[in-house]
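ok posting inputs for the pyridoxal-5'-phosphate job
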Amino acid sequence: MEIKLLDIKRQYESIKQEVEKNVIEVLSSGQYIMGKNVERLEQTFSEYIGVEYAISVANGTDALVLALTALGVKEGDEVITSPFTFFSTAESISRVGATPVFVDIEENTFNMNAKLIEEKITSKTKAIIPVHIFGYPCDMDIINKIAKKYNLFVVEDACQAIGAIYKGKKVGSISDIACFSFFPTKNLGCAGDGGMVTTKNNIIAEKIMALRNHGSGEIGRKVANCINMGQDNKILEGYEKYYHYLIGYNSRLDEIQAAILNVKIKYLDEWNEKRREIAKEYNKKLYMYHPTKVDTDIKPVYHMYVLKMKDRNKVINRLKSCGITCGVYYPVPLHMQNVYSNLQYKYGELPIAEKVSNLVIALPIFPELTKEEQDYIIKHVIEE
Ligand SMILES: *Cc1c(COP(=O)(O)O)cnc(C)c1O
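and the output
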């Protein structure tokens, strides 16, 4: 039996007609950048997460870069985050000129260990980026409390956790600003790149809106606070977008991607529920390799289902020979990445992240995985 880690074509088949209808409408409309599909998605998304503002951007990495920029994080600043995440969490910190400071993780949830944050705070620390890794929410109460005590911003990296719930709240609504990705393999994926920033703060929201679109037009002017500057009193009507007030980015979500996401977001809760059912079955049979006890006030979304196994390579090869594709997230923690050798971390400094990176195996988990396929996977994981 052939089972991929993620079979996105199956999901497409289930919503093909609706998606194709929406995409063709965009194609024939001639409106491809910023239009009614983007507007509608932002509206739906903000209601779904439970925040005032959702601002779409070109991808999840840009969401992080724009968020940090909007908060004023810059060269000389430090940002605390997890070493056990996709590279772009740290990359975005470096991209704005700041330094990532890595905190070790909890062995069972794989999330940054909130109890270890405080000892890493210095006079340069500006923000904390908790990453809800594999769709499991971080301990936001503790993180927010520390942030408040030291006057730091909190930016949730919710790229893997759309729809996850922490104490009655959706992730993405529990901090100053949150970032999402619509990369095709994410729980809500488009047919290319896409991202979203959410916030309750109107000043932050306006900054993101200005930054994503070259700092131009009415929003750029408002954010830069340029009343009556230069040629402003003679703005050519209808050409506002060619008046620039900030150095921004070209980081917009396009209409075709928004049209696809407008269909898919309707099914997101149902799909996440399927993932939880599959995880429940894995939990029952494979608890010895996945000891995470889910707190009653937490609802993860299982972007990945990750086991820790001593003979990782042996297991991966055995599963491969049975047609099952596994993933390894992540084989190298970020403090040990070549690109960060300048940060001078030593092996042994973040022992849990280092240890689990040698043990992790991600099993296929996606809403369309059948019971028969799951039984087949479990059988071949257990067999020694
Ligand atoms: C996918 C992902 C990102 C980046 O998203 P892109 O859309 O690929 O740029 C950032 N952080 C985490 C944790 C991710 O999983």
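notes: The first strand starts at residue 53 and ends at 57. The mean pLDDT is 95.
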